[in-house]
Amino acid sequence: MSQIQLSLTTTPASGTPEAANILKVFVGAAVYQATLQTERVEPSKKNGPQLSVTLTSAQPPAVLFEANAVLRYLASQSPQANSAGLVGALAALRLNSLFEIEEKRIVPLLAAKRPDLAQIYAALDPLAQQFIASAAAVPGPAEVALFSDLYFVYSASSAEATAPFPHLQAWFTALNQRPGIAVAITAAQAFLDVVPVVIFQKPSLSNRRVGPVRELSEDLSGKVRPIPGQRNVLITSALPYVNNVPHLGNIIGSTLSADVYARYARLRGFNTLFVCGTDEYGTATETKALEEGVSCQELCDKYNAIHRQVYDWFDLSFDHFGRTTTQKQTEVAQDMFHSLHRNGFTIEDTLTQLFCETCQRFLADRYVEGVCPKCKYEDARGDQCDACGTLLNAADLEQPRCKLDGNRPILRESTHIFLDLPQLQPKVEAFVERSIEAGQWSVNGRTITHNWLREGLKPRCITRDLKWGTPVPLEHMKDKVFYVWYDAPIGYPSITANYTDDWQAWWKNPKEVQLYQFMGKDNVPFHSVIFPACEIGTGEDWTLVHHISTTEYLNYEGGKFSKSRNIGVFGTNVMDTGIPVEVWRYYLLANRPETSDSIFTWKEFVMRNNTELLANVGNFCNRVMKFINTAKYQCVVPAWSEALVHPPTGAPATAESRLIGEVNQLLTEYIANFDAVRIRTALKLAMEISQRGNGYLQESKLDNSLYTNHRAQCDTVIAVGVNLIYLLSALFYPFMPSTARAMCQQLNAPLHVIPTEFNLDLLPGHVVGEAEHLFKRIDEKMADVYRERYGGGSSKAK
What we know:
With about 800 residues, the chain is of the alpha/beta class. The protein has three domains: about 1-190, Glutathione S-transferase Yfyf (Class Pi), Chain A, domain 2 (Up-down Bundle), CATH 1.20.1050; about 230-340 and about 465-550, 3-Layer(aba) Sandwich (Rossmann fold), CATH 3.40.50; about 580-798, Isoleucyl-tRNA Synthetase, Domain 1 (Orthogonal Bundle), CATH 1.10.730. About 45% of the residues lie in helices and about 10% in strands. The chain is built from 30 helices and 20 strands. A five-stranded parallel β-sheet has the order 7-6-5-17-18, sandwiched between helices. Strands 2-3-1-4 form a four-stranded mixed β-sheet. Helix 1 (about 15-30) crosses helix 7 (about 140-155), helix 23 crosses helix 26 (about 680-700) and helix 23 (about 600-630) crosses helix 30 (about 780-790). It is globular. Mean pLDDT is about 85; it is low at about 1-15, about 45-50, about 55-60, about 85-95, about 195-220 and about 795-798.
């Protein structure tokens, strides 16, 4: 056994010589097929972090302290390198020349600052450029060193930046696509802990990003920032209102769906920021605070903490989860108003409202109760009758009474500010048509928006006679606050501003940033018309919504969720059931109401766990992992038959080649549907890939007889099966991250990026971990128990 040790004096950062040294060892091991065992040795007071690598060798033990020496050593021990003529006197000129250029020209560039490709190419003299243009089938150790130096620079460069250097591009691409390189890069990046590829612990609400190997996209404060020339994706989910516990319909309608797309975007390599928070101003907060006998701030603090707890349990990967009751909210909302007011897009008008002479205040809709004029229900609210569902104006109620003191209010006029939407409609329409086409909005998002515009926009009141809200910054309006539906969408940029001082790089950067917004259908016009109208009306270059993803309603056992009547499953209930989070996430996403209302039923919930998760995904993974865990393979990935995996042209198709073709077709559809934010369909396609894996095991008849009588075929089935699990870990990660982590832990591998095609990236000799069941069966009888517990009625009624 030979011991290799690299000592670093500083914490490695992406694009530095220290990071390149780590990458050299991992990539070199992959190229020369060395078996490595790695350990990160935490820094002492005198020394920086160290990488301790043990490799199998027949040579006497040696201790090496320089990365290029490690590469020379690996190549000298490699049969592939020797057979390719990369070791020995004939290779000395090429080896020494490239190492000299790499060490004396390229490394100093990395140490000084991150260079661009023009600087790199200028540093390569004609001899080195010639070597690159005629790269060998097996790269030499100096080429591995140069590749590792360039990786962080080249992989973050745009197509436009790489175009002037075709030889460099061809060489880099050829090396980057070699079998095992992607896994090596991922492993090195995970070791460096720079934009980590996998986090095996549940991220907190202030979590770090989970993403593939990319250029570092965080500033010195650790905040995610847009990268010029890259695809930058800004994701928001509708801000949940703070006066109640979120139920499953709320969760699937916005936060969970947004989380799935954010995780997908990160694993596809898009530079991604995902923000959300609680919407805390407005009438509903005031009335709920009165009910609970607390101040508005105390109420907001209480429910913000509950929401955080629920979303943390659901494993939502917010980059920042904030709230709207902040000074940043006041600053951004008032600044936007000043711009609209200055540009002539606000008007003043009077409204006739109910006024309580005892309280000496105008009464918002929810402060008024009375008799419904339609069904005569005696406790109708000022905005809606809970008995017949009719939407109301408070002034329409019969026998109205103030909810605060029970006295009968009078009608009185109040002056308010309106957003002049008719004046803004032409610009809003032009934006909508561009965005709908470019961003592939969901059908209901398009329909609702077109209906609003077709009916013609009307002036919209943006102020209210309340105490709890963002103050209107005009002297004669000092007793008023902004209406929650003007104020709430501004929460997205204000929450981002509380995350990073450079928030405008995301929100006023439409050429570099694409905004994806997730919500229930009732929130559409506020995001597709009113908020964009406010952005446009400021005259500033705001980031307007690129894609709107909306859902219909999720109902519960044939009815509606109701906290007051204890009907339905709410966020705090899911933790009490003892059912793992991945089952909840899977069922909600598989049942996502993308095009029509859907229904949560306990019978279907239990059935999908048992027949889909357990019998499909769980069965395939466990069957492969249990077989490779036996004494036959001792957890080591065997060598596969290349003739079976990639049969020669003209030869009959094999079970392996058919599987790979089918998986690649489904993978293409998976990516296309995810890109269009058809989340439920993408999940279905991932499940189909898993089902193809089960079919492959059946067709191959994987058992002891296959191992005994057809060893090469059995080895191939195991190798293909293990690698298909690795692919599935990436495909399921957006939906069930905890399951993906468990799959990767069993495979003893970092999380895979989402590739464009299925490759065998876990090479022969890779050692996997122990097999464990991913899912557990739920007794069908528990459906009735849960239904009774959560107000779904008896099974006889269903």
